Amino acid sequence: QAVVDFERLGEHAAAFQGHDVGFCCLGTTRAKAGADGFVRVDRDYVAQAAELARAGGCKHFVLQSSRGANAQSHFLYLRVKGEVENLVQAVGFDRCTILRPAVLLCKRQESRPMEWIVQQFLGVVARLFPTAYSVPVETVARAMVACVLQPGEGKVMVLENRAIHELGKA
């Protein structure tokens, strides 16, 4: 494990050397970091990490993005996620897998009352429609690993929520 300063990520290029696969789940919230901080973390840091990984020999980059990611969106969150998807694809990995999960179901350390309420509701909905609106983070993690272990079907693969559920349970 290497601890890096994302504000000076270029100084940590050695941490990105010699890896065949890169996994990226980096992200924050607008509430926690402000709009500028959100863009810096979710787009700029991720894009720079992808570039360093590619320069270090990474062949397959796996990016956790978001359902609805679209660089043309009027919503900051979805626009930034779409922009970073485009930036990561442009880096030129042999393979790039983008996962677009819906609402992530997980236990958080910090208190987010509204998110907790939504997760409780989605937990009930998930029993009826398990792949529609949410996905447990453990399922996303298993899908990320599984996509690396399977033969590639093209240079870029985008997995939407249903495919993440299927791959994460395989």
TrEMBL record:
Cross-referenced InterPro entries: NAD(P)-bd_dom (IPR016040), NAD(P)-bd_dom_sf (IPR036291)
One Gene Ontology MF term: catalytic activity
Gene Ontology biological-process annotations: import into nucleus
Location of the NAD(P)-binding domain: 4-151
Cross-referenced Pfam families: NAD_binding_10
Cellular component terms (Gene Ontology): cytoplasm
Subunit structure comment from the entry: Monomer. Forms homodimers during oxidative stress. Interacts (via N-terminus) with elongation factor EEF1A1 (via middle-region); the interaction is direct and competes with EEF1A1 binding to guanyl-nucleotide exchange factor EEF1B2, thereby inhibiting GDP for GTP exchange and reactivation of EEF1A1. Interacts with nuclear transport receptors XPO4, IPO5/RANBP5, IPO7, IPO9 and KPNB1 as well as GCN1L1/GCN1 and LRPPRC probably through their HEAT repeats. Binds NCOA5/CIA.
PANTHER family recorded: OXIDOREDUCTASE HTATIP2
The protein's name: Protein HTATIP2
Species annotation: Leucopsar rothschildi
Taxonomic classification: Eukaryota, Metazoa, Chordata, Craniata, Vertebrata
Gene of this entry: Htatip2
